[in-house]
Amino acid sequence: MLSSDERTPGEVATLLVDRGYGDSRFVVLGDLGNDNESRCDATASTFVGTAPRLNVIALEIRGPLSAGWSPGLPDSLFENDGQLTKRDVRAAALARLMPVPGQLLWDVGAGAGSVGIEWMRADPTCRTIAIEANDERAQRILRNSQSLGVPALRIVNGSAPESLSDLPAPHAIFIGGGVTRPGVLEACLSRLLPGGRLVAHGVTLETELLLAHSFQEHGGELVRLSVESTAPVGSFTGWTPSRTITQWFFTKL
């Protein structure tokens, strides 16, 4: 790793420790090629002190495998207030959105930004614009995108459909919230590029009726996703169901 200055090694060590990688081998090489050339061998958790202003860091990462490249990252990796497309449902949505190198996704009603973040993690050239009206959630998306390695994710802090008109046309659209807001679905369908994929989710009867009508009018796929997880039932273990998700998938010809 190339450092910015003498503070960078300490900042990197703190980041590693905070994420459970404190045992990582941590070597700071200072003033290379100079008479004052130095080397400090440590782990991220034991590194202390300052480094020469001119330095590079060599790392050998040791710690939990918490984030792979396939869709469906653990929910715990996303800072959220409950407005999060959960892991199993997110993986199903991304399978239909089909991230393609160089293509653009609109994540409408982005919440914690999980779908748009995973879209960008699929390939370095994938792009996302997250549209989120809530100020706090918009800031949360920013933090999530930075911590999960896609800081180039663009955030539009505004409401749909008003905020969509000036955006570049997308190759794919995910609508995780706001489907019933007047004009949102129509605006998304009109701006979607030919060959583009749209996935919309709903948990309410009102949204389900709208998605069923869209399925009847445009075709595509209408799917209901029900996920159950184990939880204690007294001294035993039972199944706890999550809210059933209605998913409409459409490809524009």
What would your notes on this structure say?
The chain has 253 residues and is an alpha/beta fold. The protein folds into 2 domains: 8-60, no CATH class; 75-251, Rossmann fold (3-Layer(aba) Sandwich). 26% of the residues lie in helices and 26% in strands. It contains 6 helices and 12 strands. The strands form 3 sheets. The chain has a 7-stranded mixed β-sheet, sandwiched between helices. Strand 4 (104-108), helix 3 and strand 5 form a beta-alpha-beta unit. The longest helix is centred in the C-terminal third of the chain and has 14 residues, at 205-218. The chain is elongated. The model has no long low-confidence stretch (mean pLDDT 95).
